[in-house]
Amino acid sequence: MELHFTFTAELWPWSSNTAMTFVRLPVDDAEDIREFVPVRRGFGSVPVGVQIGDTRWKTSVFPDKENDTFVLPIKKAVRTAQKIEVGDSAEVTITVQLD
Fold it and tell me: If pLDDT is split at 50, 70 and 90, which confidence band does 39 have?
């Protein structure tokens, strides 16, 4: 079984390392992930498949306790391929495998 989420979010830089770029998941999606994936990996991460445009990859989402959600890293290769940068919004689809 899988959980699928599609949302649009703005890319923002990590405060201590502006080369790292993230998007925040909608709070409702984060609540569903916490409900269906109660046991998470290191740092509370959840492995996901991601698609932005025609670029797909595997990574993890990480808890963002300050905003009660998860953050998703968007690597440079994806930003370059999809011609997006900090401040742009992107449509993101994530898939969480439920085993």
Answer: low
Higher pLDDT pick, 40 / 54: 54
Tell the residue number behind the tokens 């990859």, with chain if given.
57
Rounded to 5°, angle at Cα 90 from 38 and 8: 55
Q: Specify the number of domains making up the chain.
A: 1
What tokens appear for 54 in the block?
A: 């025609």
Instruction: For residues 43 and 92, give the distance between their C-alpha atoms in angstroms, rounded to a whole number.
Output: 22
Residue 48: count other Cβ atoms within 10 Å of its Cβ: 22
| pLDDT above 70 coverage of the chain, percent | 96
CATH code of the domain containing 42: 2.40.30.100
Query: What's the domain range around 64?
Result: 2-97
Residue 44: predicted pLDDT: 84
User: Coil, helix or strand for 9?
Assistant: strand
